[in-house]
Amino acid sequence: MKLSMVLYTIVIFVVGFSAAAFSQTAASSSQSKEIFARKCETCHGSDGAGTPVGKSLKVADLRSLLVQKKSDADLEHVISEGKNSMPPFGNALSSDEVKALVSYVRTLKAKKK
Q: What is the pLDDT of residues 59-73, one digit of tens each?
């Protein structure tokens, strides 16, 4: 009887933990997309390729191998401190929001032809 109660408790804990982890991932994914739309889309476009405005400022194509091979720390630094014509967002975004943006940029890989 005690063994089944312990097993039942463990199962409830694991299921609850898994559900919480899944909901956090889904929330951060939608949050990162919303932050990208607010802060980045004007220049980088919704797909990361760059808008006409962004291309005139010579923004990086976020789908490119050059960007995608950078470390998370490098991308976080660029987002926080800015680079070339890109303004810094370190004061406007929390550390977690910057990390969420890096995760979102990782989803923008170029589609294979």
A: 999 999 999 999 999
